[in-house]
């Protein structure tokens, strides 16, 4: 019997890309290929590229060039480029990295197994691997206690700076029954945190059901036994409705956290960005969220240096950030993306000025973040323990107020081993840093002098 061909998948970019990569792993494994994370050992390497910004394009090409060296050395027989960069600039990859054997755009990823087999000159060991409902095969690559659930593909928005609609097309929501089935399977596998993602999660269901259905989806998934946290990312500000806020507030399983990319505050810049809303409507939204869920952590992102942004526009944004006191803020300098309306706008802002503005926003937010973190000192939080440093004996953990790989951490001291990885435990915050919290295990005295960690849900969480 022929030995299975070893395949590795490298995922670049956002969590949405990561789910696509996990689907490709599922298709490859289901077709008889052996999966490996050792790039030196892999006979087939698939790179799921990012092409959202020019910096991501350069990074994707750099990764492909590095992996092309493995092919020249003879370890890799087939190198495949897939995903956003291929869809956006189909000729660029072959021009810059001629060692690439095949290119698959985002709409072609389900062909990965047949394309690899063809390039190897072999037949698929198993047939019938398909992306048809109930849902595509998937091998989750995140830690076993959390997973992303992509609820829609593409985007209907027309933001003037964004290339996503050109790359991934119009929004295509997944049926609620399909999402419920996949979520149920993930929870049965040990996942305790589901993170809902799409380019615009708040528009989920409009194309299928004629109206936004994210509140209904939240209520549906909140009924899953064994689910601990349900987290929302990428919510468009003017689409965060009262129905959505009510659905979030009424479920204890919905993490007190929301990610709402606002991009700017000044109405003139927002109009140029082709974005809805303004500073006043955004302020009212933040007020409504905090009234319904007083402890909610609100994350947002802004773009500075957008064409035509004057000092007056920027000061408006800086004052807005200081007034709103967001819990988490990301700041990006404008990137003129080919094929987008903003790329050709007049009055482009020099890079050095945009970068200076970025640092000013981040400096202001650093003080705000420290002040908000200081309110946690003395509080008991439930956190999931994700990494353990053997040298220091400190765990990296997250509470419901932090999203993985995006926000700060809860640094937990006081445990001598890594035996609690993936567990949800109670900790007491003892110190606040600008972006992280420092905590100690909450201990309870039982049976005389015997001290035990307070692990509230340890029996329901997969190690």
CATH class category name of the largest domain = Alpha Beta
Helix content: 25-40%
CATH homologous superfamily annotation of the largest domain: tm_1862 like domain
Kindly, what is the distance between the CA atoms of the first and last residues, rounded to a whole number of angstroms? 36 Å
DSSP, total strands: 20
Global geometry: globular
Share in β-strands: 15-25%
The CATH topology of the largest domain: pyruvate-formate lyase- activating enzyme
Mean pLDDT: 93
Low-confidence stretches: 127-131, 445-463
Strand count, sense and barrel status of the largest sheet are: 6 strands, parallel
Helix/strand structural class? alpha/beta
The CATH architecture category of the largest domain equals Alpha-Beta Horseshoe
For the record, the count of structural domains works out to 3
Strand order of the largest sheet: 6-9-10-11-12-13
Radius of gyration over alpha carbons?
A: 23 Å
**Total helical segments:** 14
Features:
single chain; pyruvate-formate lyase- activating enzyme; six-stranded parallel β-sheet; five-stranded parallel β-sheet; disordered C terminus; OB fold (Dihydrolipoamide Acetyltransferase, E2P); 463 residues; 3 domains; Rossmann fold; alpha/beta; 14 helices
Describe the protein:
The protein is of the alpha/beta class and 463 residues long. It folds into three domains: 6-120, Rossmann fold, CATH 3.40.50.12160; 146-374, tm_1862 like domain (pyruvate-formate lyase- activating enzyme, Alpha-Beta Horseshoe), CATH 3.80.30; 380-460, OB fold (Dihydrolipoamide Acetyltransferase, E2P). Helices cover 33% and strands 22% of the residues. The protein is built from 14 helices and 20 strands. The chain has helices at residues 15-30, 54-73, 84-88, 92-96, 112-120, 164-168, 176-188, 206-209, 214-222, 242-250, 267-273, 279-292, 311-324, 351-374, and strands spanning 6-11, 34-35, 44-49, 78-83, 102-104, 146-150, 152-153, 172-173, 193-197, 229-232, 254-259, 297-304, 328-333, 380-389, 394-398, 410-413, 424-432, 437-441, 443-446, 450-453. The strands form five sheets. The protein has a six-stranded parallel β-sheet. The protein has a five-stranded parallel β-sheet with strand order 2-1-3-4-5, with helices on both faces. A five-stranded mixed barrel has the order 14-15-16-18-17. Strand 3, helix 2 and strand 4 (78-83) form a beta-alpha-beta unit. Helix 9 (214-222) packs parallel to helix 10 (242-250) and helix 13 (311-324) runs parallel beside helix 14 (351-374). It is globular. Mean pLDDT is 93; it is low at 127-131 and 445-463.
